[in-house]
Amino acid sequence: MKLEGLKFWIQIQIKPSSIRFVSMSKAKLYLGRAGQMVVMSEFLDRGYNVAVPEVDAGDHIFVVKDDSGEFTRIQVKTSRSKTTNHGAITQYNVRLSQLKLPIVPEIWYIFVQRVANKWCDYIIISREQLFEYYENEGIGSPSNGKLNLPIKHKDNQVICSGINLTKHVNDWSKWPSLIL
């Protein structure tokens, strides 16, 4: 029986404990979904309805303001931060084809970071604003159809490619709380 190209769990029994290994690609799927769920819970807590599209064609969450029907598309990007002597660095990738294409309603990116097993601040930015940073200020580095965004967190600032993104940290102003 050939097992080439298959991804599977390996469990090794070592008395008295056991160790389980999970492939990195599967671990990334779990992390991505967890980030999506934490963002959904934030919208729900603010009084917005949320839905997950049946087919992932670039939108991870649909956010709806029930009383008006106002609709927003959300792309969630989740990553684990690496801590250094100079703060933390979190690496994200955005598809350039999505970034370059205006769409109605506009896509918003929410970058979620996991640091030391805790959810941290969200970086919330519209596709239009991120594209402007890319075109006019050179944010990130393009590679293989994606824009690589190494985001550094240090001294209460969030910087990517020399651009200060601090004003986008936890900027929920587009979705004010509807709960009294």
**Structural class estimated from helices and strands:** alpha+beta
Global outline? globular
Number of separate helices: 3
Number of domains: 1
Q: State the share of residues found in helices, binned by percent.
A: 10-25%
Number of beta strands: 13
The averaged pLDDT comes out at: 87
Question: In CATH terms, what is the architecture?
Answer: 3-Layer(aba) Sandwich
Any idea of the CATH class? Alpha Beta
Q: What is the fold-level CATH name, i.e. the topology?
A: Trna Endonuclease, Chain: A, domain 1
Distance between the termini: 61 Å
Low-confidence stretches: 8-16
CA radius of gyration is: 19 Å
Largest sheet: 6 strands, antiparallel
Order of helices and strands: EEHEEEEEHEEHEEEE
Percent of residues in beta strands = 35-45%
Can you give a write-up of this model?
The structure is a single chain. This protein has 180 residues and is α+β, with helices and mostly antiparallel strands. The protein has one domain: Trna Endonuclease, Chain: A, domain 1 (3-Layer(aba) Sandwich), CATH 3.40.1350. Helices cover 21% and strands 43% of the residues. The strands form 3 sheets. Strands 6, 7, 10, 11, 12 and 13 form a 6-stranded antiparallel sheet that branches. Strands 3-4-5-8-9 form a 5-stranded mixed sheet. The longest helix has 22 residues.
